[in-house]
Amino acid sequence: MVAGGFGVGKTTLIGSVSEVTPLRMEEPLTVDSAAVDDLSGTPGKTTTTVGMDFGRLHMAGGQLVLYLFGLPGQLRFQPLWEDLAEGALGCLILADTRNLDACHGALSLLDTRATPYAVAINTFPGAPVYAEAELRQALALDPGTPLTTCDARDRTSCLYALITLMEHLLAHRTAAPQEPPR
């Protein structure tokens, strides 16, 4: 999964890395949403994800296929988040230093479900830059949670963020006790 707050770049990231034309469930922003969706960091934003985004990516020489599900960023879609999180192996959470609080809903959901995740700070032009320790404290990240940066518009940058997540998932899986075969 790819999660994070409203306007953080989830749709853009999936579009940057997907090998297939991404499925996008976007609708125009309306007057009704203007009162609840903060457009201060994204004044040119005219649409929002109301269902999910979907993309596919082969990694490791085709040995690994990632199915990327982008969650809508607003808390009012939490029931959909819960449905899409069912069976997910992990999540890349995108964060924006202009509004770090926007990703706390996704962090809480994943912590509650014990879903492993990595956090990628999407490097928006002109956004404040903070030291890693400050970001970890602001996001209340465990020391073992990977924290990286990416530019959601740049394929290579996004691939590195996804590789960070995959390495974390593999380490998490190796460290977890395995059930004996039945």
Automatic annotation (TrEMBL):
This is ATP/GTP-binding protein. It holds the Pfam family ATP_bind_1. It comes from the Bacteria. SUPFAM superfamilies: P-loop containing nucleoside triphosphate hydrolases. One of its GO terms (molecular function) is hydrolase activity. Belongs to the GPN-loop GTPase family. InterPro entries: Gliding_Motility_GTPase, Gpn, P-loop_NTPase. Coiled coil: none annotated. Keywords: GTP-binding, Hydrolase, Nucleotide-binding. The keyword Nucleus does not apply.
